[in-house]
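Try this one yourself first.
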């Protein structure tokens, strides 16, 4: 499985880098894709990372796309027509799509949420936006090939759920990363 994590200026660092790390530990090919014209992308908290690739036509060959939140990262993703076209394509092709925190606003803008279950960062600002979907309060919500999560602290449950959704086994990762210890 090949997974693209899209980075726009202002991306949430934890929601992208930790997810990429866990997916790579699980044996997936998880790549950071810059939506800017440069390989370096600055996050919401000033952390600058070098992406593996720039957003281009080859992105359509990936099996999954993940949208991290962050402000203004999620807005920058939402306002990028290339990203909206990509999300629509992945949806129509029945490929996997993930979004964390504020990033479900991109799914809304792409028009793919009707009749689906989702979650996002809590609050009226977001919850009132998703009238075409069934809004849930769970930490991670999976609706067929669409997976959403609520915020930075939900990054680990989200990443482990993605591993399992894609046919991997998150249990050894949870054990090795001491995740099971914090759930007690």
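Now uncover the answer:
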């Amino acid at each position: 499985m090949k997974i693209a994590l899209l980075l726009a200026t202002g991306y949430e660092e934890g929601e992208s880098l930790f997810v990429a790390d866990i997916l790579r530990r699980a044996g997936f090919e998880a790549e950071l894709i810059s939506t800017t014209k440069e390989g370096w992308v600055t996050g919401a908290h000033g952390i600058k990372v070098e992406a593996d690739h720039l957003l281009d036509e080859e992105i359509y060959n990936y099996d999954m796309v993940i949208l991290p939140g962050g402000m203004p990262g999620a807005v920058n993703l939402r306002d990028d027509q290339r990203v909206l076209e990509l999300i629509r394509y992945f949806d129509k092709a029945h490929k996997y799509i993930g979004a964390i925190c504020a990033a479900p606003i991109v799914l809304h803008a792409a028009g793919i949420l009707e009749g689906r279950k989702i979650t996002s960062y809590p609050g009226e600002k977001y919850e009132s936006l998703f009238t075409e979907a069934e809004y849930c309060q769970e930490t991670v919500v999976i609706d067929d090939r669409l997976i959403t999560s609520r915020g930075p602290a939900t990054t680990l449950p989200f990443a482990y759920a993605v591993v399992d959704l894609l046919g991997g086994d998150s249990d050894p990762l949870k054990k090795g990363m001491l995740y099971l210890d914090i759930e007690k």
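Discussion: The first helix runs from residue 13 to 25. The first strand starts at residue 2 and ends at 7.
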